[in-house]
Fold each of these.
Amino acid sequence: MSRKPFVRRKYWNEPTMTWWERFYLFEIVRGLSITGGVFLRNMGRWMTGRKGALTAYYPEEIRSDYARRNRGKHILTQRPDGNPQCIACNMCATVCPAQCIEIEAGFDPADTSHPKSPTRFEIDYSRCIFCGLCVEACPEDAIRMVPETPGLPSGDRHRMWIDREELLNWNPQRDVAKPYPPKPVPGGQP
Amino acid sequence: MMQDLVVHGLFIVYAIAVLMTFGLILTWVERKQAAIMADRIGANRAYLRIPFTQIKLVWWGLFHGLADGMKMLLKEDFRPVTYDRMAYAIAPWVVFAPVLLVFAVIPFGGRLTPAELFSGSPTVVEWFGDRSYALQIAPLDAGLLVVFAFGGLTVIGSMLAGWASNNKFSMLGAIRSASQMISYELVMGLTVLGLILIYGTVDLVDIVEQQSGLILGFLPAWGIFYQPFGAVLFLTAAQAENRRIPFDLPEAESELIAGYFTEYSAMKMGLFMFAEFIEIAIIAALFTTLFLGGYNLPWMSDAGFTLPGGHLIPMGHGAVLATQMIVFLVKVMLLCSFQILVRWSLPRFRYDQLLRFAWKFMLPLALANLVVTVVAVWAIRGGGA
């Protein structure tokens, strides 16, 4: 029985190596010096208190390269006296495709210009898809989104809710487009 | 007699503590170093919380090794249906034990004279008399031979594991492991022969003591300067013996799952991993002993530092001993780090390349190295006159 002798196939992209590279030993040294150099550089950075990695710590570190218009965490804007600008109209909760906003309205007849306001305003960040429709739907400029992400990783989904107090106080903003006069003080000037 | 028992008992405790610590720390060092080499952060989340407080000891993730160990202990101890339960059960130990035993003959410090160390206490001085001990567990004349004898035992463990697992992947891994380790064992032995010729002994304490001092007035008289070629070959062969990445064909995750320990789970698998990491430390210790002068620092002797001008800075016996032990550990640590650097830098061989590399490249080079050494030693010692 005769067999065809084994002929090694020639490929169009055969590696072309010089004898120096084929000897391998010096190329090993070159490779080791590259990786070792990177190691020493990064180690030097860590030793001198700088960061020697490209990775961002999550959730401790806020990435510096978020766009200015990144849709991150929600905030509720405030009237000049610190009460929420929100009039509890439920439009954001209605438009929300993830149905993650829960609002409970309260009524204060003494506050003549802004009688209705939320007593409970909660967002479930385990369901929020950060689409920004709530911001667009709001007629009062009462809800906004800031670039920072919520930073809520947790082993428990019930801890991923943010309530009214945090939405108001985490990054308070009072420069609303349609300011209401403050709540009249009883016995004061009308 | 009792004195010897006490001293050697202390040595054994020290050696086991050092090796276990190295094994535990190296798992973390490997991950962290690989991460830093790749611009990543690496394991940094495991922590120990001091009970009843909120103080968390993170320490750059140093406790990841402990967490790994815990995980291994708590996992299900899976047993395959195999025809050879006995071999299956003892295989991890056959791999693990010889690795520890190799350290018995490696000197990890200079010469201990207890009477001098505790010269303040007359009872100790009287009890020990003028005894002195080399810092080595087993003072054997056959030091290097013992190293190779126990080093060769590891292959039996991996073959047992492969054969007894009743698994094709394990079988392939075991066969690969056997052929690879036997091939590279040969190269390793041949590279060390040159060193034995130069020093004229296989007693490791004697070899290290001959490496103190200087050659040509400025180079430390370390083996690496007598046998630079041998050192490179030895380190390569040792890395291959340890089956780590450029040579990790027996384990070959992408082909053989985990090679010869595919069927092992929980702490039995942990023993294989632990043996591998301890072997890194052992190889580093061996290389330090043979080629890097062991515990020797240039210009340092048992009396203290001798500066190049001939000025002597005297040191006490305890200080000298502590310095020597620390120097040894630092050298070992650096070499471990170098091995990890190699493991994370170089691409793997194919299996035929691996064996060709051993038999057609390393073996001739080792033989050539040996021949040159023989001729040189013969010429220097008078050329047969």
Amino acid sequence: MDALLSSLVSVAFHGVAYGMILYVISVGLSVTMGLMGFTNLAHGVFAMAGGYILVSALSRFDLPFPLALALSFVLVAAVSVVLERLLYARLYGASELEQVLFTIGLIFMSVAVARMIFGTLQQPVELPESLKGPLALFGREFPIYRVFLIVFSSSMIAVLWFGVERTLWGAMVRAAVDNRAMAQAIGINTKRLFTITFAVGSGLAGLGGALGAEIIAIQPTYPFEQLVYFLIVVSVGGMGSLRGPFVAALLIGVTDTACKYWLPQFGAFFIYVATIGLLLWRPAGLFGKSA
Amino acid sequence: MNHPVGYAADSRLRWTEYLPWIVAIAVFFLLPNYLSLGARVLTFILFALSLDLIVGYAGIVTLGHAAFFGTGAYVAGILSAKLGLADPILQLLAGASAAGLLGLVTGAVILRTHGLAQLMLTLAVAAVCLEIANKATPVTGGADGLSGVTVAAIFGQFRFDMYGRTAYLWCLALVFAGWWLVRRLIYSPFGASLTGIRENRLRMQSIGAPVYLRLLTVYTIAAAIAGVAGVLLTQTNQFVGLNVLGFEPSGELLVMLILGGVGRLYGAFVGPLVFLIAQDYLARQFPEYWYFGIGLILVLVVLFARGGILGISDALLRRVRGRT
């Protein structure tokens, strides 16, 4: 009985940590898709870039961990602004097929670049001593880094939600998601709004990739392999919303961890089957507005 | 986008439409050392044709078309290596039916959604197939792949020789059959209704067209054709590996189609030809740059040349004609 309880607790704990990471990475995708209607399959590239930045900042340049995390956010956000202005902006009105092909092209290029710079091997993360080892909580032991992940991600999410729900910028984003033409008509500079939102979303993806580098292995095939998960989070949660993907990400994190723990031979089957069933029931996702 | 091929156009064969076949037969006699590459190109032409049918004509964006290709490849491989069924025609029929059935079942779900959810589901179906092929090691060989595939003589007469001549002609015959079928489809009223759905789904629905049924039909047909292409790959390579499934082959196929030109029928011929020949030369020498290159090509085609190679040549021809 106690063994079952402790495995339940452990699955829930690791699942929540994984789900938090999935959410931090995918939330930007949900918002940019809802806001700009842009199918950005290359979103995982930003997460991978964040992971590589963290790993090289820690092991090659010996930077402290908080600085490395901050760098992964800032650098990815900065690069994404350039990409958005130079490339993405040209395709805002384009068909879905064109956006899909364009972003797949970006994935191919980034995979090649990652392979050239870092090789094909998985990058190990050198955590600082203070984040290694177990932490005793409620009479059980939890890996300290996962606890840190959950706490840190939760606070990031709280900041993000505050930003979207309570600030002027958030109000403008919500207005533009609901009705872009009307938002423009009342004088919101949607072009600048897009750029800033895109940068924040990509930066968060970079941060998520960096935070989760220990859970989701950083290797060149990352944008291909994780794409399904990010898309599941966004489409199950409902794009354009903040809450939907959060619920979806936690569900997927816990389910995936549970499946891998108890039914490893089935791999990710259950996730896919559940996703298909859920989308048949609610095609617009859990919290999406039906089109 | 300009689509010169369709129901409204003249359905008689133009002289240019003989060109691919003349070239294919000329290659057989003039370049005997390149027949295995040729068979590979032909296989991917058939695969790209099936993709063009759903992406180019029906407007369904899919990231998981390799699921059907891989199903065909694995069905043929398992029949031959595990069950000892070596007859190529039976393998073909089994591969096509299995892929078609998968297309019907998954299409019934996928085509109810659209946009992002649809994209994700096509990807998820391919991911599930990859997962099955990877985990069911006793049947599929898992990550090591499935070797020991034997193929008997076609009609008991034509053996697969070591020079790849039979394989080449076998692929050519099936590409011809596939081309004929696809061409008939797109010049038919059925093809016209697909184009209509692509251009304006809502309006097609309001004039009473059975949109869902049409899409499901074309999805199933395309899946079966992709299955045939998969069977051909197994028969010519006598090996099946995990690389026939998943996101990368689907992505590469999209690159080939886009490179040739989407929704033009012959884009599916030009794209794989150029792509695979370039791959044969470049990919072995510069694998990293190769990947970078195909990504770059995709980005450039989308940004500057949306009609692909055929679109560019059309535009050039028009300019030349305009001057004279």
